[in-house]
Amino acid sequence: MWWLLDVARLAAREEQWALLDTAVQGMCDWDGRFDRWKPRDDIKDWMRELTGHAANIVASALRAQPDGAHFLYELADDRRVDQAIRSAVYRP
Prior knowledge:
By secondary structure, this protein is mainly α. The chain has helices spanning 2-13, 17-34, 37-47, 52-64, 66-69, 83-88.
C-alpha cells in the first residue's frame, strides 16, 4: 500500500489525474481486503493535505471503492480535510 501511496502522491503533484484515480482505488481495494492500519494512517495524513481537483479525484476514487474507503471514516469529521473527501468517507 505504501508503494501505491507514493504513486498517488506523485500523481497528484504532477497532475496525472488518471494515475491518481487508479492508485487511490488500488489502495482502497487493498485496504478493504486486508485491513492494514499502519499504511492507512499515512494515507489519511496525505489526504488531509489535498485540495481542489486532486481532492475531487480522490473523493471519486473513494466512492468507487467503499469497502476500503469506510476505513477512513475519521476524515469525515476532520475540518482540515477538503469537503469532497469528507463527503466520500463514512462511518461504518
